[in-house]
Amino acid sequence: MTINSIPSTQLRLTSNITSAGKLILSLETIPVPEPAEHEVLVRIEAAPINPSDLALLVGPADISTLQASGTQDNPTITMDVPESLLKPMAKRLDTPMPVGNEAAGVVVTAGAKASHLLGKTVGIAGGDMYCQYRCIPATNCLVMNEGTTAKEAASCFVNPLTSLSMVETMRMENHKALVHTAAASNLGQMLVKICQADDVPLVNIVRNEQQVAILKQLGAQYICNSSSPDFMQSLVTALIETGATLAFDAIGGGKLASQILTAMEIAINHDAKEYSRYGSSVHKQVYVYGGLDLSPIVLNRAFGMAWGVGGWLLTPFITRMGMERFLQLRQRVANEINTTFASHYTQEISLAETLNKEIILGYTKQATGEKYLITPQK
Amino acid sequence: MTINSIPSTQLRLTSNITSAGKLILSLETIPVPEPAEHEVLVRIEAAPINPSDLALLVGPADISTLQASGTQDNPTITMDVPESLLKPMAKRLDTPMPVGNEAAGVVVTAGAKASHLLGKTVGIAGGDMYCQYRCIPATNCLVMNEGTTAKEAASCFVNPLTSLSMVETMRMENHKALVHTAAASNLGQMLVKICQADDVPLVNIVRNEQQVAILKQLGAQYICNSSSPDFMQSLVTALIETGATLAFDAIGGGKLASQILTAMEIAINHDAKEYSRYGSSVHKQVYVYGGLDLSPIVLNRAFGMAWGVGGWLLTPFITRMGMERFLQLRQRVANEINTTFASHYTQEISLAETLNKEIILGYTKQATGEKYLITPQK
């Protein structure tokens, strides 16, 4: 079944790293697919550019070498990839990769066993979202409540489910409070609201006063500014009050993870009576889920032996929490898409504009408060 | 019940860090304790100096400032502790700390419910072992088989149970092979023998050709020399062949943990067909259990998102594996104390000699192949 008229071809954005060391971004024209029995075809109305999209879109390319060519409607962007960074890319060389982690749109065609979704506004995730029509299994659709628009639903997967899963991780691993870095981000603001609603103490670490102000306005209780001279002291105080022993770190480079573990250890030992040569026996964990700083992580190990630092990704965590709980979280996102999980965009751009030089320079800055929304039907 | 005559007082070695920033090592004369109902009194015959003892014994003190005073029989050692390192020591300041993780000796007095141990040679652990008589619960004694001497049993806890527990950790966390650093150490040699007996592939990382030779003589199959220019290549090859995704690292400073994770990721992706922007989904883990290099750990994150680095200690792991399994491992140690778990000492010293300047300079070097045994009855 189909509603509206569906074109036979569509545009899709791809990123290709060539073995000659060039990254090429362009739009390709491809057929609109037909959904199978359990699938739906979604007309993509809106897709955000998240930090996690940039890894595939721009990856290791040197933005300062960006060259634009082609026409306004069919632009091509070329950048150099430093030779030393080509090797980890070996498996993707000379293969145009579709891009885009999540999007939202309207189901315009449905397979025989997915017709209940026809006409619904849905959020979807799974890559290849920077296109105009996307075929996907019906079970992968986050069905929005009546009245929710595709633009409102565009960011319903990555940030909402990541922030909810941080709180889930905290519960599963027996911590009682959280630390979050780059905490004024779109995701960070969602986490503040979730923790307020769920009564979870949250220590927010930000990098400047502007970000402090954003979180104060949301009513965040613990805000520590890492640029402030009393950062460590304020962090220790917040950790003593909250008892947080789990941190999610979006930055992932430099000394911040080490500082967090050290402050946790000081807070834990605050009331200790006896010296322990191995430090406290309380496990302290930092999960790195982003890479805003790609420099090495430097751990000074002033935090005993009960510690861990590791990578954290949403997808394997979903497997770990199980489908039943995941569906509960998805429903919460649908119900709170305009409150807890509301996203704000500073610019709406077409697929062609996504390959505009000035716009690329804008969204690759990853500045707090700036977020781009691709509207591929424009 | 008591065998032999027991003196009323004994010598005990203590380490005291004063609030004035001095570390003082000395011998104190204390009463010989009386065992309670479930306890035994062990006459300590032999106690090794392990790297893990040095943290408490010498800790943050600056060895180059070492000053000896007192008499030959009642020596006192003083060293400066840099002021910046005093703060983490706050809880132990001005409190003489007894030292020594493990020892072996003969049960010379037993409480009413522990008399079955009277006259037995036992290995014991739990701190405060650098003394002449130690009271301890009977259940904490690792009872040696007939014919085993106290010197043979002296190192029956720390290295044997740590190396056995590394293999246990591997099994519990679903890895199929191990990487070990500083692999020519006393502990590393035990691990080589355990892995040979248990058919566990083991990749040994050492730092020089002398250590390569030690492990070759033991029949170790995979030996990678981190000083060699082809280190990374040989490590990747060994990881492809073994499939090891778990490493135990005694060094804990510098780039080695990062290199191991990177080599694991390269090995895992060796046969991968597709590019994954997040790296492989196979979890790669490095547990840091020692601190031969106290400089920061530097992680370059060229190994995807499925990774962890963390501290590892024997004691919490024993709780995790459970008492039943722990007792099985203890019995294996008793049975194999002169084969798999044989330790060799380069020097036997009395308690007073433990506080001799030249000897301190010797055992604090932590040189491979050099191991000191304290014989407190001398």
Automatic annotation (TrEMBL), chains A, B:
<dbReference type="InterPro" id="IPR020843">
    <property type="entry name" value="ER"/>
</dbReference>
<dbReference type="GO" id="GO:0070402">
    <property type="term" value="F:NADPH binding"/>
</dbReference>
<dbReference type="Pfam" id="PF08240">
    <property type="entry name" value="ADH_N"/>
</dbReference>
<dbReference type="GO" id="GO:0016651">
    <property type="term" value="F:oxidoreductase activity, acting on NAD(P)H"/>
</dbReference>
<feature type="domain" description="Enoyl reductase (ER)">
    <location>
        <begin position="18"/>
        <end position="299"/>
    </location>
</feature>
<keyword id="KW-0521">NADP</keyword>
<keyword id="KW-0560">Oxidoreductase</keyword>
<dbReference type="InterPro" id="IPR036291">
    <property type="entry name" value="NAD(P)-bd_dom_sf"/>
</dbReference>
<dbReference type="InterPro" id="IPR011032">
    <property type="entry name" value="GroES-like_sf"/>
</dbReference>
<protein>
    <submittedName>
        <fullName>NADH oxidase</fullName>
    </submittedName>
</protein>
<dbReference type="InterPro" id="IPR013154">
    <property type="entry name" value="ADH-like_N"/>
</dbReference>
